[in-house]
Amino acid sequence: MLKIDRLELGPVQANCYIVSGDAKQCLIFDPGEEAGKIQELLKRKQLTPLAILLTHAHFDHIGAVDELREVYGIPVYLHYKERDFLGLPNLNGSGKYAALPDYRVAEADKLITEERSLEIGPFKMELYHTPGHSPGSVSFYFPHDRFAIVGDTLFAGSIGRTDLAEGSEQVLLKSIRESLLTLPDETFLFPGHGPETTPIQEKHHNPFLQR
Question: Which residue numbers delimit the Metallo-beta-lactamase domain (predicted)?
Answer without folding.
Answer: 13-193
